Amino acid sequence: MSYKDFTINSLKEKFKLNFFYDVCLFPEIVEYKIPDYLKLLLERYIFLALAIDTEKARSEYIIAPVLGELKWNYKNKISLFSGNVFNVDEKLGLTGICDYLISRTPEQYTITAPIIILVEAKNDNIKSGVPQCVAEMVAAQIFNQNQNNSVEDIYGVVSTGTNWKFLKLSGSNLYVDVIEYYIDTPEKILGILSAITN
User: Fold this and answer.
1) Which of 75, 149, 167, 169 could make an SS bond with 113 (beta carbons 3.0 to 4.6 A apart)?
2) Exposed, middle or buried by CB within 10 Å (0-12, 13-18, 19+), for 31?
């Protein structure tokens, strides 16, 4: 078993998680000032990513530039990993590759705690990515505990590139934001990611 094999029901059963779907995680968003280069990049490549219409294209042409901007802006505070193996507990099925992982440390050569955000890229279905993202969040919670780094909340994002859905794991409570954010307002997406990072 690995992250991608989990379902909502198996997550509830195995990890005793309580799911909440009716919350607004970010009622007030301080919008991020999008640099001109990122505006131009998204303007040029969103069409291409959607025309190719694969997870890889959406990930490379839309998600990676957004997360790259976050890393650049917070280079002395966070590290960004892409496509890394993140095997935390094989017996629990918490193994596999994370699309993107952000850690609250500038150490870029190895994944160290505390892990704060996991981003799961999906081709065209946000809902299908939620169980895998939640399993990765549980793994991050365990990883942080094993490293004696107490981080109260782990955040997750499931994104098609154009749509972004945020999640929060706090103890055994999993919150799925009722709002979905769209790439035509990148200042809100990066505003949320910045708030989580700080």
Assistant:
1) 149
2) middle
Q: Where are the alpha helices (DSSP H) in the chain?
A: 8-15, 36-52, 55-58, 64-73, 126-146, 186-197
Task: Map tokens 């994002």 to a residue.
Answer: 157
- pLDDT for the residue numbered 159: 95
Q: What are phi and psi of 47, to 5 degrees?
A: -60, -45
- Encode pLDDT of 66-105 as tens digits: 999 999 999 999 999 999 999 999 999 999 999 999 999 9
**Token pair recorded at residue 192:** 């949320």
If one counts the domains in the chain, the total is 1
Q: Compute the mean pLDDT over every residue in the chain, rounded to the nearest whole number.
A: 94
Q: Say which CATH number the domain at 156 has.
A: 3.90.1570
Domain span holding position 27: 3-197
Diameter over CA atoms, the chain = 47
pLDDT of 102-112, one tens digit each? 999 999 999 98
Q: How far is 136 from 153, CA to CA, in rounded Å?
A: 13
Please list, in sequence order, all residues whose beta carbon lies within 8 angstroms of the beta carbon of residue 27, skipping any fewer than 6 positions away.
none
> What does 49-91 look like in DSSP terms, one character per residue?
HHHH-SHHHHIIIIIHHHHHHHHHHTTTT-EEEEEEE--SBTT
pLDDT band at 122 (very low <50, low <70, confident <90, very high): confident
